[in-house]
Amino acid sequence: MNRRELNSINMMRTVYQFLTINQSSWMNKPSINEAYVKLGANISEIETHGQIQATDVTVETTIKSQTKEKLTATTLRITEAMGAVATAKSDTRLKAMSDISENDLNHLREDNYVIKIHAIYQAAIAIAPELMTWEITQSDIESLNIGASMFKQHAPDNSNLKVLTIEATANIKAKLSETSTLLSDTLDPLMLPFKTLNPTLHEGYVIARRTVDRAATHSDKPTPTE
Q1: Which of 131, 155, 179 is the last residue of a domain?
Q2: Is residue 214 predicted with pLDDT exceeding 80?
Q3: What is the pLDDT of residue 157?
Q4: Is the pLDDT of residue 88 over 50?
Q5: Which member of 18, 43, 51, 113 lies 3.0 to 4.6 Å from 108 by CB, making a disulfide possible if both were Cys?
């Protein structure tokens, strides 16, 4: 949420807290109680959307990057061994399959990267006994298949998180607008009679309704003294 939205939600929390503390003064007014319940529900919904909005997409990016880095390193170690086997056997097809660099892998699109890893996995499985000579274990080979599947699972996560974040941002704006209307068009008029019935309560409500710019209240400059 931006600063303006944070200020708004903080004001709404303050109003809700004020009404909660002073519930005995208005609890016999069903219309106020209905608005109070709605206010609390809206605040909870805004906070839920705020948590979704605050999700750090960079976490998933890091996980995916680490998965790819590890998978690429294992792939290159296996293709180097595959190249040695291909040379010993004069296997042109296997040689072509193993002739790939880190740069080549890094420049592949995500889907093509996964396809390439699976192809190397299939080729490695077929010559697993020969690769053992070059210290490539069955576990190493299987890690290609597992790693490619993990990478494929993480690949859409960033897009999904971005979509959820965009939706949450839109939902926050809509719910803040709805709650602002609830306050101005419903609670404010309902609390107005207390200006005469209970001036202290009304004044407290008016104070609670003031939107305080939290960021603007903080300053690094010392308060001047006379």
Answers
A1: 155
A2: no
A3: 54
A4: yes
A5: 113
- Any idea which residue has 């010392």 for tokens? 222
Same domain? 106 vs 135: yes
b/e per residue 23-57 (b: at least 16 CB within 10 A): eebbeeeeebeebbeebeebbebbeebbeebeeee
Greater confidence, 201 or 55?
201
Range name among 15-24, 108-117, 150-159 with the lowest pLDDT average: 150-159
Q: How does DSSP classify residue 133? A: G
Are residues 181 and 110 located together in one domain of the fold? no
pLDDT of res. 191: 96
Task: Give the pair of three-digit tokens for residue 41.
Answer: 């529900």
Can you spell out the DSSP letters for 1-59?
A: --HHHHHHHHHHHHHHHHHHHTHHHHTT-HHHHHHHHHHHHHHHHHHHHHHHHT--HHH
pLDDT at 218: 44
Q: Which two tokens stand for residue 77?
A: 């170690």
- Whether the predicted pLDDT of 216 surpasses 50: no
Q: What is the C-alpha separation between 78 and 138, in angstroms, rounded?
A: 11
Give the range of the structural domain holding residue 30, as residue numbers without chain letter.
3-54+158-217
Give Cα 113 to chain centroid, integer Å: 25
- In total, the chain counts a number of residues equal to 226
* CA torsion through residues 167, 170, 175, 178, sign: negative
